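I'd like us to work through together how a protein chain folds, taking it slowly. To get us started, please write out a protein record for me. Label the sequence line and the structure token line clearly, so we can match residues to local backbone shapes. Once you have written the record down, we can walk along the chain together.
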Amino acid sequence: MAKLIPAVALISVLLFIIANASFAYRTTITTVEVDDTNTQERCFRDLRGKKFRACQMYLSQSSSRRSTDGKVLEMPGEKDQQERHQLQECCNELKQVRDECQCEALQVAVEKQIESAQQMQREQYQEVMQKARSIPSSCGLPEQCQIRTFFF
């Protein structure tokens, strides 16, 4: 009987590890650092329910659009123009939000984009984060935003 207890405990631990391993690749942890809790609460209320679709669309545009056989689907100039237009629409969305809430709005757009992408690959995640970090300076926002998400 004494030998049975450690064996059952070991099997339980192994089952727990196996069960959690299947969900590890889809886990996203997001943190936002904000100094003023009143501002954070106000921003949270202001942004509730908003999706920032133009920003999501801009973030979702891959730097290389190719078909399954490797052929380029768009002409480079056409893609650049479309991407610039999408960035401008994203800037417009962010500028409709109070200055102190713009970083939180961008954070919402990033989170929504990551959530909507089914089984996002690490390269895609890195591309989304790189684009997200460049949006504040591209849009002329008053502050630099710290976009923080973790992709497993």
User: Anything to note?
Assistant: The helical segments are 4-21, 37-47, 53-60, 76-95, 102-116, 122-139. Confidence is low (pLDDT under 50) at residues 64-73. The radius of gyration is 21 Å.
